[in-house]
DNA sequence: CAGTGGTCTAGACCACGTT
DNA sequence: ACGTGGTCTAGACCACTGT
């Protein structure tokens, strides 16, 4: 029963290096992540079984399992007993659960409709440059849309995308409701995480007109930075929401 | 190498019962949770080592580890290599990280001061009865306080507690800033989780006066239901926050 | 040094889903 | 019947901590 030595491959350092060692399962996770990022495995695909991966990577099944479990915890994979391990898909139900935190005060959450007001290309603002990691030569795409629940407009939002990550965006004839599925299918960009900041603001005259509420009415402002699997920011989102009959929910554990 | 049969103890059912089996590690977790809930293990205490627990419970070390890992993931325990496993304490730094999601727009988050405006006992409202699971004979304690960051009042909040879970609350001379530590030390109640709902509202005349802002100014309303280790609701919190220079942050993963 | 949790392996059986 | 992931065990070595 030979015991494999820890050899962080690709990161050769001096022999006496006392720090910076990664557990084997973390190295396995990184290898599997690379296969996801590079598009070798696409959403919906069935992965090789644990035993096969273990032989491929020359580690034990238990170590592969620990890596797969960690990726499953991050909603990147889906495991089903008796069937296998699949690459997670950006379906509405999962997006709804993972990235959409608004629910009606009475009743269960559902995915809102959306109507695009405008799409345009522009030079990024300073904030956009900073949050998306762009420089002066870069360009962004801005999309403004209104989203409704049960026919009632509930929020107006602006999406900002870096043009270089979304080539030919302007060739699109329609922009679907579920943009994360679009990012995945059209450009192979998987949204893996996001940070949101919430504030209460007064409705601007413009937003009020679009939403059909009074100017100055309190709106919930949700600012999102969404990141891809390599943790690079790929979308800014700035939603202004009428929270009269709707709330944003958070679980603290 | 005998293989232990799964015998969900304490839940005897018909022999042919095909459903409702719990994995061993989940049963171990429940046993350990009972020792926490019943106060055998108190915050800060060093738990027996994995090997000792494994012998006590007649399972392998790996199974104990899976239970301990799961409790550590829920912030109930703290594990330190070389030292041991400790019961988590409600210190400010942990509360700040786990239960306090407000940060200044510029700078790092910190725990706000608080000044109590009033404490009173009363009959619960219908909402309170429903959310705390009380009936007509029960009574609640209400605390209203203002919290400040860097001298600036940022929010006013109302706490509602069921009197029967907090006997002699009115004997308290002072109510400390960190009430979760108070709940733990005085009544042995550990807050394990909470749900929050956020909305944007207009400041009432009364809140505006107390906070020193304009009536009608948009405020972030945060409604919290906090639960103990047995998942029973033990605190309602209704915070109205000036979010001009402050935001509520959420990570979506 | 001894003791702790952290990692890794190997092999077994179980529950589930497909064939 | 077969292959999958899920659970459980046992034993080994490593890294960290305090003596």
Automatic annotation (TrEMBL), chains A, B:
Top-level taxon of origin: Bacteria
N-terminal signal peptide: none
Record region (Disordered): 107-128
Keywords annotated in UniProt: DNA-binding, Transcription, Transcription regulation
Pfam families in UniProt: GntR, UTRA
GO molecular function, one term: DNA-binding transcription factor activity
Domain spans labelled HTH gntR-type: 22-90
GO biological process: negative regulation of DNA-templated transcription
Stored SUPFAM superfamilies: Chorismate lyase-like, Winged helix' DNA-binding domain
Composition skew (Polar residues), residue ranges: 116-128
Protein name per its UniProtKB record: GntR family transcriptional regulator
Stored InterPro entries: Bact_HTH_transcr_reg, Chorismate_lyase_/UTRA_dom_sf, Tscrpt_reg_HTH_GntR, UTRA, WH-like_DNA-bd_sf, WH_DNA-bd_sf
């Amino acid at each position: 029963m030979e015991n494999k030595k820890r050899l962080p491959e690709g990161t050769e350092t001096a022999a006496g290096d006392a720090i910076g060692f990664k557990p084997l399962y973390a190295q396995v996770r990184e290898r599997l992540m690379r296969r996801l990022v590079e598009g070798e495995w696409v959403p919906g695909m069935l992965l090789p079984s644990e035993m096969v991966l273990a032989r491929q990577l020359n580690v034990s099944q238990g170590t592969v399992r620990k890596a797969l479990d960690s990726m499953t915890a991050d909603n990147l994979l889906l495991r089903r007993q008796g069937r296998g391990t699949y690459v997670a898909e950006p379906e509405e139900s999962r997006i709804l659960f993972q990235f959409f935190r608004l629910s009606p005060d009475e009743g269960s959450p559902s995915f809102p409709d959306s109507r695009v007001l405008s799409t345009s290309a522009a030079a990024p603002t300073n904030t956009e440059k900073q949050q998306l990691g762009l420089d002066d030569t870069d360009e962004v795409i801005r999309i403004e849309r209104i989203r409704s629940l049960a026919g009632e407009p509930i929020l107006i939002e602006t999406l900002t995308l870096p043009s270089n990550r979304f080539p030919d965006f302007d060739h699109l004839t329609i922009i679907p409701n579920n943009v994360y599925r679009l990012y995945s299918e059209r450009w192979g960009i998987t949204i893996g995480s996001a940070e949101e900041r919430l504030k209460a603001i007064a409705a601007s005259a413009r937003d009020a007109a679009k939403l059909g509420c009074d100017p100055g009415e309190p709106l919930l402002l949700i600012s999102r930075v969404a990141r891809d699997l390599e943790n690079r920011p790929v979308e800014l989102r700035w939603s202004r929401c009428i929270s009269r009959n709707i709330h944003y929910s958070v679980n603290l554990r």
